[in-house]
Specification:
binds zinc ion, five-stranded mixed β-sheet
Length: 302
Amino acid sequence: MVADDAIPSIVARDERTTPRDGADAIITAIIASARDTMARAKLEPRDIVAGACSSPGPLDHVTGVVYETPNLVGFRDIRLADRVAEGVGTKIFVDRDTCMAAIAEGLVGAARGAKDFVYVTVSTGLGGAIVSGGRMIRGATNTAGEIGHWPVAFQPDPTREADDDIPLCGCGSFGCPEAFAGGANMAHQAGVKTASDVYAAAERGDARAKGVVIRAERALANLAVGLVNVLNPSVIVIGGSVAEHQPAHVLVPMHRAVAERAFKTPAAAVRLVPAALGADVGMYGAVLEARERAAGRGDWFL
Ligand SMILES: [Zn+2]
């Protein structure tokens, strides 16, 4: 582990709504946001050792190329690291948003000290990252860990189409945890605006919303059992806005399913815990990752 593990301090911030009209507009907004923030903090590009930029995946953190993103319009085979670096004037490291969050929770958050842990975020979408034996699992082309798209359901009746009953996912597949338990998909299926509206309607007894909530819980339960049986983590850190606001519908069903249905030995070894770092987890992870990779130390963990 690195010596100075502390939660990074944030000296300036800027938040903007993600443009919905393609990759160029998004990259322009990222660069403008970074430059404005640097100006406010009175920093020149030469003062900055390295920057980091998180993105939904799948992406390659080594080349900085984003392959595709189900939830961002027009993001396909984009050289994100190079283009942001050109615009900002510093070295930029790109990684999946959930990998950066996992790095922060692993170094200074809820999974601190754990060598085998899974980070899960249940938010607008559903994602995560897997650390095994002290290393982030990256896979053959650096896209591993997309647990939001690890199918947990299928249409049992072969005469029916998948979307007759189980929802199609934004990734083009079906039966994904994100399709059931991602906030945007839940809201769409319940015919309301946000995930909070779904839970509020379910609370009021709305049958359609209740159905959506129950399916989300079951998808999360299956995901949790799969993670425990397959990966044998010592900690599963569960973050994201939906998880934070609805622990009874996220953490609790996941915990219950592991206790009831996972293998006893890995079930006894795992703790399911809420994320510790809140909404800024991605920024903390970005700083920590940029620091490690700029120093040439990325390989030990990232
Ligand atoms: Zn999917």
